[in-house]
């Protein structure tokens, strides 16, 4: 592996590779449970081969190699009857890896790390879609460029996962469970570190932020702010403008003193 860790992008790639190395065995075991429950355990070795390819692509990016590798694996190891399921399994592989990286990457590097790892798997999803379409048409299996395959895979995966979120929400009537399902689905689908929902009560002039099952597992009570609060949640609601926090923002961060008398900077509760 030839990475220059002096640059932040390569450092994040190196860190992501290390975490993926450490977690790959458990990810494959979790995927095996999914395959067994679906009656497709025989596809396990194919997914393991592709997870190895994804790791190789992370370590030393070589789009031409990975597209040829995926194409060869599918041509020689994927039964025609399993084509549709195979794509779903790749999405499950993406989700399992995404969750573990989101949990283990440092907060300030979550988005970049998830994008690096996500592109590798999304590219393989796109490669598989392209291959299966052309195999069904008995067409030439020459693949498009890697960036196109990533976009194809990402678009298909996001639409697939958003459809599942919608389906899951149709059967839920409890608001707390609804927020948890929506939060989990959005975090699994996109490159997000955490997610909060702010519920506006215009009649009583306050907003309420339910606890996040992922980011605030120990918080059981909702946060509540008056609408005229300087907190950034309230500012967004009052102005209707999207906000991007870049550096110090007193609406989001605050200074406080810990029990030892040390100055701390923390996210506002």
Account of the protein in words:
It is a single chain. The protein has 269 residues and is mainly alpha-helical. The chain folds into two domains: 8-189; 199-267, no CATH class. The protein contains eight helices and five strands. The strands form two sheets. A three-stranded antiparallel β-sheet has the order 1-2-3, with helices on one face. Strand 4 and strand 5 form a beta hairpin. The chain starts with 7 loop residues before the first helix and ends with a strand. Mean pLDDT is 82; it is low at 1-7.
- Quaternary form: single chain
State the helical fraction.
55-70%
User: How many individual helices?
Assistant: 8
Order of strands side by side in the largest beta sheet? 1-2-3
Given the helix and strand composition, which structural class is it?
mainly alpha
Q: Quick recap of the structure?
A:
The protein has eight helices and five strands.
List the helices and strands and how they pair.
Blueprint (H helix, E strand, L loop, with lengths): L7 H30 L6 H16 L3 H15 L5 H22 L5 H28 L8 H24 L5 H15 L9 E3 L4 E4 L13 E4 L5 H8 L13 E5 L5 E5 L2
Antiparallel strand pairs: 1-2, 2-3, 4-5
